[in-house]
Structure formats: C-alpha cells, structure tokens
Design a protein that fits this description.
- The chain is 62% helix and 10% strand.
- The chain has 2 helices and 2 strands, in the order αββα.
- Strands 1-2 form a two-stranded antiparallel ribbon.
- Strand 1 and strand 2 form a beta hairpin.
- The longest helix has 44 residues.
- It is elongated, with a radius of gyration of 32 Å.
- It starts with a helix and ends in a 20-residue tail after the last helix.
C-alpha cells in the first residue's frame, strides 16, 4: 500500500512538471497605480492554490486540536470517576428491598 502512495505522489509531481514546462509563459498582472507585474503562469497558479488551501488547512488543524482537547478532558474525567469507585464488591443490595404491602 505504501508503494501505491509513493507512486501516486511521483505521478502527481511528474504531471506538475509537465504542466510547468508546457505553460512557462509570462502573465501580466495590472496592479494599482499603473504598475504591471510579469509573473510566470505556474508560479501564479501555485500562489492562488495556496491562498485557497491555507485557510481551510488552518481551520482543519484548529478543529482537530479542539476535538483532541475535548477528548483528553473527557478521558481525564472518566479516569477520575473510575478511581473514585470502590474496589471491593458490595455485599448488601444497592437499594433496600421493597416492603410488602398488606392487601385486604
């Protein structure tokens, strides 16, 4: 299974390299004040991809961290409750037996 994962990443890197070499053109970006920036198309696509990926990645990491903290708190609570239980078995019933009622 590990081999397939490496094969997938190698294939993805190869496709990215082919795309980069095939589209190595300069793109004009018109900025404020009449400034024009010449940027390579693969670099521009990488920057826009990262601008879309990073907020979702930060949200995902934060959500996992919060869930991990909640799980650790719950595990500590369960452990504390287990430690507070008596260790020897009870010999008397937990609830008193109901008293018989007289019926007429």
């Amino acid at each position: 299974m590990q081999f397939l994962k490496y094969l997938f990443w190698c294939l993805l890197a190869f496709l990215a390299a082919v795309f980069t070499f095939g589209n190595w053109t300069r793109v004009e970006i018109h900025l404020w004040g009449g400034l024009v920036a010449l940027v390579n198309l693969p670099f521009l696509l990488l920057v826009t991809f990262l601008l879309g990926l990073l907020p979702m990645l930060l949200y995902h990491v934060t959500a996992r961290w919060r869930l991990r903290q909640r799980l650790q708190t719950t595990e500590r609570t369960v452990e504390a409750l287990r430690m507070s239980l008596p260790t020897e078995p009870r010999t008397e019933p937990m609830l008193p037996a109901p008293e018989p009622t007289a019926q007429a």
